[in-house]
């Protein structure tokens, strides 16, 4: 009877053991014409990546990448330049492009309709969109300056500021809640959230002067960076009215670039020896993405830029001074007890066995 109770108690302890993450990634190279000067900004649920690269003529051009087709340039609005910033799960790409009249305006692209001018004659660029097609970004208002804009349920609006000269709307979720940043009366950047379409509620800082958000998920969790009291950029997560700093590797700079609906955060952290590391945070724990690569990998991953709901991550890495873009594809997701937890558990069981059997 005593042994049976011991086994039951052992099982309970195992169930309560703190988990550690065991994930392996395969690394997929995104071929670029100019790897060091291109940008890959977003990835959707199908694994399509969008951003921009330089054409053989030397112009910036928006593209869509798939493993099957590689990089496919998606054109311009008649000018010589296009930049893509976001792609939704329907394959709609949005960003900014020059027209024949040399106006830099918002564009939308689909495989069937090609690139179209979203708001003809309006200066600006789109930075994010949701699966309903609602989008946010920044525009130029004559006589006023740079302002964030929203296009929600067919209605276009420009935003005010938090007392300064400019604002931008950066990310929108499926609930049409969006985030961005605005300058205040001292022309310092301050992160905000907007839940009603117009009212900008400041998120605060981590004790420093400025804060900038990059992504909001459907749980209204927001990530980005804020200056800390020492004046360094510190990665943060904001939820339920509270901004919290994320663990780093002891350097003086970190940034959280994106978060998915599972709460997995990605970005980078500088180590105490000034090395940049691509990282992810899960439940507050920081993980170096380099630790999940094969031992014979020649690449050092320095920044993570985007993540989708499947856990695919867009990263940059370097080898011999050459910059390259990759997709990390998760190949396993196994939760195991940490070694420290197992050691404490073993000690507890030994003590319990002696007590039960004495």
Blueprint (SSEs and pairs):
Blueprint (H helix, E strand, L loop, with lengths): L1 H14 L3 E12 L8 E5 L5 E6 L5 E7 L3 E4 L4 E10 L5 E7 L4 E7 L3 E4 L6 E6 L5 E7 L3 E8 L2 E4 L4 E10 L5 E7 L4 E6 L6 E2 L8 E6 L5 E6 L5 E7 L2 E4 L4 E10 L5 E7 L4 E7 L2 E4 L11 E8 L5 E7 L2 E16 L1 H19 L1
Helix pairs in contact: 1-2
Q: Shape from CA axes?
A: globular
The overall pLDDT, averaged over residues, is: 87
- Rg (CA only): 23 Å
Tell me the strand percentage band. Answer: over 45%
Q: Structural class, judged by helices and strands?
A: mainly beta
Q: Main β-sheet, in a few words?
A: 4 strands, antiparallel
Helix content: under 10%
Runs in which pLDDT lies below 50 for 5 or more consecutive residues are 1-19, 334-358
- Termini separation (Å)? 13 Å
Question: How many DSSP E strands?
Answer: 28
The number of helical segments is 2
Run of helices and strands: HEEEEEEEEEEEEEEEEEEEEEEEEEEEEH
Q: Order the strands across the largest sheet as they lie in space.
A: 1-28-27-26
Outline the structure in words.
The chain has 358 residues and is mainly beta. The protein contains 2 helices and 28 strands. The strands form 7 sheets. The chain has a 4-stranded antiparallel beta sheet, with helices on one face. Strands 2-3-4-5 form a 4-stranded antiparallel beta sheet, with no helix packed on it. The longest helix has 19 residues. It is globular, with a radius of gyration of 23 Å. The two termini are 13 Å apart. The N terminus and C terminus are likely disordered.
């Amino acid at each position: 009877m005593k042994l049976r109770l011991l086994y039951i108690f052992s099982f309970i302890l195992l169930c309560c053991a703190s988990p550690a993450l065991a994930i392996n990634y395969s690394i997929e190279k995104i071929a670029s014409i100019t790897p060091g000067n291109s940008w890959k900004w977003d990835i959707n649920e199908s694994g399509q990546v969008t951003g921009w690269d330089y054409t053989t003529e030397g112009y910036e051009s928006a593209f869509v990448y798939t493993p099957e087709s590689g990089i496919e340039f998606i054109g311009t609005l008649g000018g010589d330049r296009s930049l893509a910033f976001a792609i939704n799960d329907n394959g709609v790409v949005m960003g900014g492009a020059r027209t024949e009249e040399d106006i830099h305006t918002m564009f939308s692209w689909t495989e069937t309709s090609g690139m179209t001018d979203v708001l003809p004659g309006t200066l600006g660029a789109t930075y994010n969109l949701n699966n309903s097609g609602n989008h946010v970004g920044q525009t130029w208002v004559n006589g006023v300056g740079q302002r964030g804009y929203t296009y929600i349920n067919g209605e276009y609006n420009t935003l005010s500021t938090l007392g300064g000269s400019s604002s931008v709307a950066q990310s929108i979720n499926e609930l049409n809640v969006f985030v961005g940043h605005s300058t205040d009366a001292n022309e310092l950047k301050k992160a905000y959230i907007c839940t009603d379409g117009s009212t900008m509620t400041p998120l605060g800082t981590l004790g420093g002067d400025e804060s900038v958000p990059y992504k909001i998920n459907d749980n209204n969790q927001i990530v980005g960076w804020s200056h800390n009291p020492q004046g360094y950029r510190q990665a943060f997560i904001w939820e339920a009215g509270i901004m919290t700093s994320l663990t780093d590797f002891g350097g003086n700079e970190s940034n959280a670039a994106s978060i998915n609906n599972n709460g997995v955060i990605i970005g980078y952290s500088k180590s105490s020896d000034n090395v940049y590391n691509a990282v992810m945070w899960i439940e507050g724990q920081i993980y170096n993405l380099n630790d999940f690569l094969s031992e014979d990998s020649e690449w050092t991953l320095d920044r993570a830029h985007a993540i989708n709901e499947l856990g695919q991550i867009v990263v940059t890495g370097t080898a011999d001074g050459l910059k390259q873009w990759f997709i990390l594809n998760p190949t396993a997701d196994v939760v195991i007890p940490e070694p420290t937890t197992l050691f404490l558990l073993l000690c507890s069981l030994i003590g319990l066995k002696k007590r039960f059997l004495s």
